[in-house]
């Protein structure tokens, strides 16, 4: 597949502070890529470098295989939706949407038909003559999107476009965005710190932290095969349990001294890796707990130290030495202080090298 | 039922104490308003008095025998319409030019990045603190050397750009969200078009209020026109006013006051008209609701 955006060792520094460090990133044509990360991680800077609103301090950026470092923002075939929508308060909805077309002297008749088209698609007909302040938050967001779509640019850049909407509207807007992409097939670059948006909208997710790309993969792989501890902890809520363990002779020793045997596949995988110390990760929803009298080969006993009722699920907290583990189960089985057992499911475990924080990789079978 | 009664009682206590503090403020405001309005009331009332009454009843607010003689005298003695037009001409020219130069300079300070921008801006702001008396003589020499002595253009010329206006406009332009300008940047909008379609409409209320300040300042300008203008037909209103106050013949107070009233009339009308407009433009702005 042809690349439409390519970062080659791109650096960005503000004064002497590095913001982006040696970024390599390929975005395919027509793809919906999500830049996901905590605030201040540099994801917006990456987006702004694509748009040209931010210059590049080092390395090369290619757009449609053309070196774009020095190309003006206006010549990059880019449309952008800003977090605050950036609607002109003194212009009507219609004038806001047509702004770029009018500036670039598109014939009047064509402007009218293109504006009408996006108004229809975004359910904004009837609002043409309104001013932005006379619209609701959701409507303003759609006007901002309409203004970006009417340009028919190659790239549509979205900078946290849904963060100012309430939860209900956000769910609806997510679906709309995906539908619109199916219609236009522009290359979507979407910045968010919301993992639900990232998982539901993205074809691929680029996780960014501390100015470095942490992982670039499909939502499914990002969730199931986190490349490092940051990814494992950032995706999913509550966050992945991270346990410092000791591995010896095919057994995993936990912080409180309990141990369980590993499958042969995992033993091979661990011995293949060169990690000296290991960290084990497991998602709360993968921590299966049950009654203490059931015997199983790989299990860990514990006492429930805290219970949280989410309504549809129950969260059990328990301590293994100094470390706390959260388990999310569909129904209530235990109360506070009850004895229980954690049954290890090998397929759900993740192991990381404690020194590099990188995943040692998953075995092909568990 | 009982709680409801308690609530109303509580409310009453609150509104009572609120009224009490309101009263305090009202008294302060009334005193301030009287202090500010009295000179104007004095001028208006004196302008309708006879010269005799001015001496017998100096501070009376209502004239005993109201007469428009002073106004008739003013109109007969000086080319009043001509002088008003002169003042209006200078003030308008100065206001438009100051806004023009101020808007362009402020735009460059806010939206361009160039080397030495901060230094240039700093030097510019420093000029605010240079007193008029320092620049008066150099300006006078310059203006007379280019042959604009006793000419209204000579009055207007040194006022056509100043740092205060640039400073105020820059502050307002900085308030425009960056992303609005970036939308224009992504469309390759030329700077002058950005200025016309985005920046000016968004700082319109500020432009109007700053414009009014410029206009009134120039309208009231006294020393500089006094230096430049010689012939009566070129006088501005503040000079005309002086004609009734100084000189050997003593002060014709009613005529001086009549001229004063006429002098403040036009800016007052302008202000009343613009105030309505300014409030309108202010309520139109506001990005987020």
Order of helices and strands of chain A: EEEHEEEHHHEHEHEEHHEEEHEEEEEEE
Number of strands of chain B: 0
How many DSSP helices of chain B? 14
Gyration radius of chain A, rounded: 25 Å
Mean pLDDT of chain A: 93
Identify the CATH homologous superfamily of the largest domain in chain B.
Answer: MetI-like
Features of the shown structure:
heterodimer, A: 366 residues, alpha+beta, Rossmann fold, OB fold (Dihydrolipoamide Acetyltransferase, E2P), 2 domains, six-stranded mixed sheet, five-stranded antiparallel sheet, 25% helix, B: 2 domains, 14 helices, 76% helix, globular, disordered C terminus
Provide a descriptive summary of the structure in words.
The complex is a heterodimer of chains A (366) and B (289). Helix content of chain A is 25%, strand content 33%. With 366 residues, chain A is α+β, with helices and mostly antiparallel strands. Chain A has two domains: 3-228, Rossmann fold, CATH 3.40.50.300; 231-353, OB fold (Dihydrolipoamide Acetyltransferase, E2P) (Beta Barrel). In chain A, the strands form four sheets. Chain A has a six-stranded mixed beta sheet with strand order 6-7-8-3-9-10, sandwiched between helices. The mean pLDDT of chain A is 93. Chain B is mainly alpha-helical and 289 residues long. Chain B folds into two domains: 22-67, no CATH class; 78-284, MetI-like (MetI-like fold). Chain B is 76% helix and 0% strand. Chain B is built from 14 helices and no strands. Chain B has helices at 2-47, 51-56, 69-77, 80-111, 117-126, 132-145, 152-156, 163-174, 178-186, 191-202, 204-220, 223-228, 237-245, 253-284. The A-B interface holds A 51, 53, 72-75, 78-80, 82-84, 86-90, 99-100, 103-104, 131-133, 147, 151 and B 177, 179-180, 182-189, 193, 197-198, 201-202, 204, 284-289.
């Amino acid at each position: 597949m042809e690349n439409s955006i390519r970062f080659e060792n791109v650096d960005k520094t503000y004064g002497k502070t590095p913001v982006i460090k040696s970024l390599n990133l390929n975005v395919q044509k027509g793809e919906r890529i999500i830049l996901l990360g905590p605030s201040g991680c540099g994801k917006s800077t990456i987006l702004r470098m694509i748009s040209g609103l931010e210059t590049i301090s080092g390395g090369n950026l290619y757009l449609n295989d053309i070196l774009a470092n020095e190309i003006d923002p206006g010549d990059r075939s880019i449309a952008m939706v800003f977090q605050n929508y950036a609607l002109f308060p003194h212009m009507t909805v219609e004038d806001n949407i047509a702004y770029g077309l009018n500036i670039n002297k598109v014939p009047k008749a064509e402007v009218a038909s293109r504006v009408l088209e996006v108004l229809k698609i975004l359910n904004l007909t009837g609002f043409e003559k309104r001013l932005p302040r006379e619209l609701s938050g959701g409507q303003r967001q759609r006007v901002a999107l309409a203004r970006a779509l009417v340009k028919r640019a190659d790239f549509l850049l979205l900078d946290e476009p849904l963060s100012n909407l309430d939860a209900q509207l956000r769910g609806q807007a997510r679906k709309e965005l995906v539908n619109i992409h199916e219609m236009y097939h522009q290359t979507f670059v979407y910045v968010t710190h919301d993992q639900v948006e990232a998982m539901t909208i993205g074809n691929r997710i680029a996780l960014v932290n501390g100015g470095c790309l942490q992982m670039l993969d499909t939502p499914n792989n990002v969730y199931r095969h986190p490349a490092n501890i940051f990814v494992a902890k950032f995706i999913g809520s509550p966050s992945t349990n991270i346990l410092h363990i000791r591995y010896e002779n095919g057994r995993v020793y936990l912080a409180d001294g309990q141990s369980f045997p590993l499958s042969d596949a995992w033993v091979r995988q661990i011995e293949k890796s060169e990690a000296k110390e290991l960290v084990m990760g497991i998602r709360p929803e993968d921590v299966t707990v049950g009654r203490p009298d059931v015997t199983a080969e790989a299990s860990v006993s514990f006492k429930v130290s805290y219970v949280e009722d989410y309504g549809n699920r129950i969260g059990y907290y328990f301590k293994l030495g100094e470390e706390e583990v959260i388990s999310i189960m569909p129904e209530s089985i235990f109360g506070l202080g009850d004895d229980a057992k954690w049954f290890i499911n090998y397929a759900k475990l993740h192991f990381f090298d404690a020194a590099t924080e990188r995943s040692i990789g998953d075995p092909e079978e568990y | 039922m009982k709680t409801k009664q308690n609530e109303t009682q509580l409310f009453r206590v609150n509104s009572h104490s609120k009224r009490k503090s309101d009263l305090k403020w009202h008294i302060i405001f009334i005193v301030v308003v009287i202090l500010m309005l009295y000179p104007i009331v004095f001028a208006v009332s004196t302008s309708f008095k006879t010269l005799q009454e001015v001496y017998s009843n100096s501070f009376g607010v209502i004239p005993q025998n109201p007469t428009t003689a002073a106004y008739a005298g003013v109109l007969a003695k000086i080319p009043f319409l001509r002088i008003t037009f002169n003042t209006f001409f200078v003030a308008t020219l100065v206001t438009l030019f100051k806004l023009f130069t101020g808007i362009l300079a402020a735009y460059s300070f806010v939206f361009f990045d160039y080397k030495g921008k901060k230094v240039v801006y700093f030097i510019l702001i420093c000029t605010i603190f240079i007193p008029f008396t320092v620049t008066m003589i150099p300006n006078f020499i310059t203006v007379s050397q280019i042959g604009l002595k006793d000419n209204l253009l000579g009055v207007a010329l040194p006022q056509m750009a100043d740092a205060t206006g640039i400073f105020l406009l820059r502050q307002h332009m900085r308030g425009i969200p960056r992303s609005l300008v970036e939308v224009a940047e992504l469309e390759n909008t030329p700077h002058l078009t950005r200025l016309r379609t985005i920046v000016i409409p968004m700082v319109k209320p500020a432009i109007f209020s700053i414009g009014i300040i410029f206009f009134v300042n120039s309208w009231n300008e006294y020393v500089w026109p006094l230096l430049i203008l010689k012939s009566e037909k070129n006088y501005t209103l503040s000079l005309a006013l002086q004609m009734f106050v100084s000189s050997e013949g003593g002060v014709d107070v009613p005529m001086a006051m009549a001229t004063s009233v006429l002098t403040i009339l036009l800016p007052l009308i302008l202000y009343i008209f613009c105030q309505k407009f300014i409030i309108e433009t202010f309520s139109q702005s506001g990005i987020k609701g």
